[in-house]
Amino acid sequence: MKHGILSIRESEIEDIEAWLGTQVDLIVTTWNEGQWGLDGITWGDSNKRATLERVFGQTGRQLVLHYEFQGGNLRDYSAAADGTHDDKHRKLAQQLVDIGMADTIIRPSGEFNMSWSGRYPNDPANYAEGLARVVREMQSVDGAEFTFTFSPDGADLGVGPESWPVDAPSWPAGADEPLVCPTFYDTWYGYTDGGPSTQAEREQAWQEVQLADIGRWEEFAQARNTKVGGTFEWGCMGDSTPFPNASGYDNPYFIQQMLDYGRDNGWEYQTLWNNNYHTIFPRDADGLEQSSDRFRDLVSQRIGTEPTPTEEEPTDTDTTDDTYGGYNKPSKGMLEWHVPLNENFAKIETDIQDLAARIDQLEGDR
């Protein structure tokens, strides 16, 4: 699993990496409404193109690009769906390829909460077709090696199936299905109002709420020939949270469980949302000191040691024959595995007797 964190400037990345003691795999950005091309990437350094090339194009880091592909209105995806923005998608893709960022992970839209209200999409069919066009147009650029995600909120499936881009008319034939990468935060209305949470509450929240949220999206992904690939927006709720009655506050248990779950279930990515009331670096920014320490300790140990699923070696690396020295090896998955073993035991007895007789013969010939 690759590890990362939200950041929008080069100097902050350097500070984070000094804190972790290693280079991160990924940096995720937040959204930048209504802008296109490299200028539309949220980034705090003045010479954006040169900095992005230096930080990502010339290193092993990858950018998770939060891409507002609909344009200026977060709710209206009709222009994206009718092809109005196709040329803008190609332009961005070409610019990324030109500065060595052809492996950028494209995270589409804002925090896609599936409610089709407020600041979120008001027509799932337009969302699906608009995203399908993003994939088609960006992948048409020579040298493009982008990965695309489907990135909704984690708590409610809502109208997810209606917004799935692979079913849209413009989805390019043969393209990989997007990885499902929902948002997950440490929220539960059973927590002590105003915190801090107890360990019993933390364990109950994980077992009864958070694993259920993850499980719903795993089922959604499996039904569409893809998988939950990880999360680009997750974290604890700190002192400034607007949800004091639903927050676990400084919860290192949640940090541990999320990182362990991702590792053990083949997630491709995790990037902690180090922003607003989820800040773990600097350590004392939002009252998440224990969570900060747990994240640092785990991630600093695991960066570079956890292969992504596409890099993993086959688990069964035994290339030997089914026999060795004349003994039988039970086949993998064999139900009556005791039969060849019993045959081996009988043969061992005979072999030992033969060996003893041979030794006696050799000693008699001296």
Give the structure's gist in a few sentences.
By secondary structure, the chain is an alpha/beta fold.
What is the chain-wise order of helices and strands?
Answer: EHEHEHHEHEEEHEEHEHEEH
| Helix percentage range | 25-40%
- CATH top level assignment of the largest domain: Alpha Beta
| Biggest sheet strand line-up | 6-5-4-3-2-1-10-8
CATH superfamily of the largest domain: Glycosidases
Total helix count? 9
Terminal residue distance: 65 Å
Secondary structure topology:
Layout: E1 2-6, H1 10-20, E2 26-28, H2 48-57, E3 62-67, H3 78-81, H4 86-98, E4 105-108, H5 124-139, E5 147-150, E6 179-180, E7 184-185, H6 199-222, E8 230-231, E9 234-235, H7 252-264, E10 269-272, H8 289-302, E11 323-324, E12 327-328, H9 338-364
Parallel strand pairs: 1-2, 1-10, 2-3, 3-4, 4-5, 5-6, 7-9, 8-10
Antiparallel strand pairs: 11-12
Helix pairs in contact: 4-5, 7-8
Protein name: GH26 domain-containing protein
Region (Disordered): 300-329
Organism: Haloarcula saliterrae
